[in-house]
Description:
Membrane topology: Multi-pass membrane protein
Number of helices: 20
Number of domains: 1
CATH topology: Sodium/glucose cotransporter
Protein name: Sodium/proline symporter
CATH class: Mainly Alpha
Organism: Psychrosphaera ytuae
Strand content: under 5%
Order of helices and strands: HHHHHHHHHHHHHHHHHHHH
Largest sheet: none
CATH superfamily: Sodium/glucose cotransporter
Radius of gyration: 22 Å
Keywords: Amino-acid transport, Cell inner membrane, Cell membrane, Ion transport, Membrane, Sodium, Sodium transport, Symport, Transmembrane, Transmembrane helix, Transport
Function: Catalyzes the sodium-dependent uptake of extracellular L-proline.
Amino acid sequence: MIDYTFISILLYFALMLGIGFYAMRHSTADNNEYLLGGRNVSPKVTALSAGASDMSGWMLMGLPGAAFVSGLDSAWLAVGLLIGAYVNYILVAPRLRVYTELADDSLTIPEFFSKRFSLNNSSVRIVASAVIIFFFTLYTSSGLVAGGKLFESGFDMAYQTGVLVTVSVVILYTVLGGFLAVSMTDFVQGCIMFIALIMVPLFAMGELDGLGQITETITSDFGNQVAAKDALGWLGVLSLMTWGLGYFGQPHIIVRFMAIRSHKEVKIAKRIGMSWMTVTIIGAVLTGIVGFYYASQTGMQVDDPETIFVLLSQILFHPLIAGWLLAAILAAIMSTVSSQLLVSSSSLVEDIYRVFINKEASEKELLFTSRLCVVIVAAVATAISMDSTSGVLDIVSSAWAGFGAAFGPVVLFALLWKRMTNEGAIAGVLSGAVTVIFWKYAPVLADDKALGSVFYELLPGFIISSIAIYVVSTLTTPPSDETEAVFNKTQTTLDG
């Protein structure tokens, strides 16, 4: 018997690898092209690449799983993300595109932090690189966990084998084609995710007579289940909505803004990106809620809520179509993992190898080292992800908060406040990262629970980082005239 689902996955893999070979022939002449696509990416590719690299496996597994368990409470997280993404396009995207080019053509976020102060090898560059490598290794492992769960639930494959299959394909097209391959595959993957998150909840609702019965069930069976717990409350709502603050500090997302053809095309990217994101987030939440309704009415067994999208795809559609829907999960996973691997590699090469190990490295050597670092980071993340009991959303939440608190305030201050100093930036990165780790893991409450069990660690980290930047910057020597001149030129370019 022909396994149509598996054939669909193989065709998807072939498409991704084909894009990798195409990108290798057209955009890997040097490290600038390999890491940023020569700053010549179209707005539509920028928008869907930013969205797809943002909405990793948690979009089709973690968020539907949260909605399956907590219902409409999870919608507050979606609202916070939408607001954060919109403000990111307004405040960060155009300024970062212009500023990174004027700041001696910075290729990485740590390099920009350094050259923002007219310094090549400042300490903030090293600190930021260390944070990127630490949190991205953790973040990448979350995507591989999702890949392992997908192959385990969708193809009855061993979890560890699924992890290895996922990471192998990602490594191949990322190593081959670099940023252009990652961006182009993200565009294709974003289109697949968009269609999938419309089809699955709509077909499930159509199978069970639509919204009327769903609403009735939510207010009865599902409503009683949720009501048995404590109400979410304003603190819980605020905790979920603060996820939106994380956007300002996610290197794998904001690096897309650095690569767009022109800052004048950011508005086009914003319209495309926000439309895509609104539809997909609503679809993800509906998938979880409708999935709970479907399971309660049909008796479908759901051992792991994070696999509800997989189960609905297999039950509702022909295996050939189900294969492409499962490919949507792979798309979400791979788009984020590849972006994170590339950013980690760029930081290792441009901010550490090129600065401290071999300052005279040729472009050919840098290109080879970048590809090698992709493989190394992937190997470490794979080792971490071998624990099949890991929760996708839990791992993502830790890394998201870490980047949001460590880099978010520094990015905003760097782009909007000329008085920020190198010392202030270091204080912001360190205080944000340390606060998140303490808030998440320190057993300071009753029963050895951490503060993160009460309130999401991103907002406390963000606030403390912002205070540290302001206080330390005002107490240290102001930036040089050269630094102020580049800041002013950036604003003049934006105004023009």
